[in-house]
Specification:
The protein contains 12 helices and no strands. By secondary structure, it is an all-alpha fold. The longest helix is centred in the first third of the chain and has 20 residues.
Length: 260
């Protein structure tokens, strides 16, 4: 890495790269890239792709700080506000998200009294104000989904129909198989596991084929449908494919909970 940085510095000197303020007309395109990078950094910190721990607080802290700095400089940009709101609302659940043994605690089982309710108020205020002033964008819609979860007194009292509707909007704005996967889970909660499994079958035959999250979602929906054997098999396969140790432990615990 040191050699790469040295070569990069040398190259900058050779081409005489200027370090100056970005012209106003170039900001929108550059802003999209900055938002996307911050989104990826935060996600990796919130749910680490590999390793023994589920979270990397160093990354979420840095991403949140940078998102606040960006919002302070572009306060009227709807997607910047949406991104910050999404981070704040997501991080508000962090204290309840991992058990004492380091195993993730699913949203439905989290102790909501441990959530940071001041942060939830901040995030909801941010996204509400943004949506009243701006046309919705992908980050704003994701923040709205996070707000629905954050304001629900319990998993059972979550407005799942609204969550499904928001995921449908998100699919229109930013088509993505992960969004469809999440909609399948929400649909399974709103109208029953059979509907969720039908949509999940479409996801399983697309770009996410063989991904551990598809099997995890299948296990969850089949468990809700009372299909203990298939649910257990799906959880075991998800654990086999997952690369994060903490997530593997959760999936195997869920498999064991399906019974014989």
């Amino acid at each position: 890495m040191t050699r790469r940085i040295t070569r990069a510095k040398q190259r900058l000197r050779e081409v005489g790269a200027p370090f100056a303020s970005v012209p106003e007309e170039e900001l929108p395109g550059r802003l999209d890239v900055v938002q996307h990078v911050l989104y990826l950094v935060f996600n990796e910190g919130y749910s680490a792709g590999t390793g023994r721990s589920l979270r990397r607080p160093d990354l979420t802290t840095q991403a949140l700080w940078l998102a606040r700095e960006l919002h302070a400089r572009r306060p009227d940009d709807g997607e910047t506000a949406g991104l910050l709101a999404l981070m704040v609302l997501t991080e508000a659940r962090s204290a309840a998200r991992v058990g004492p043994d380091g195993v993730p605690v699913p949203l439905a089982e989290q102790d909501r009294s441990r959530w940071d309710h001041d942060a939830i108020t901040e995030g909801v205020t941010l996204i509400t104000a943004s949506l009243t002033r701006n046309a919705p964008g992908p980050y704003q819609v994701q923040a709205a989904i996070a707000a629905v979860h954050a304001e629900a007194p319990s998993d059972a009292e979550t407005d799942w129909a609204q969550v499904v509707g928001l995921y449908e909007v998100l699919e229109q704005l930013a088509p993505n198989p992960v969004v469809t996967l999440n909609r399948a889970i929400a649909l399974g909660m709103a109208t029953g596991p059979a509907a969720g499994l039908r949509l999940l079958a479409e996801v399983a035959s697309g770009p996410l084929a063989g991904h551990h999250r598809v099997y995890a979602a299948e296990g969850f929906l089949r468990q809700r449908a009372g299909e203990a054997g298939p649910a257990r098999a799906a959880y075991v396969e998800a654990a086999r494919l997952a690369s994060n140790r903490a997530e593997q432990r959760l999936l195997l615990r869920r498999a064991a909970g399906c019974g014989d």
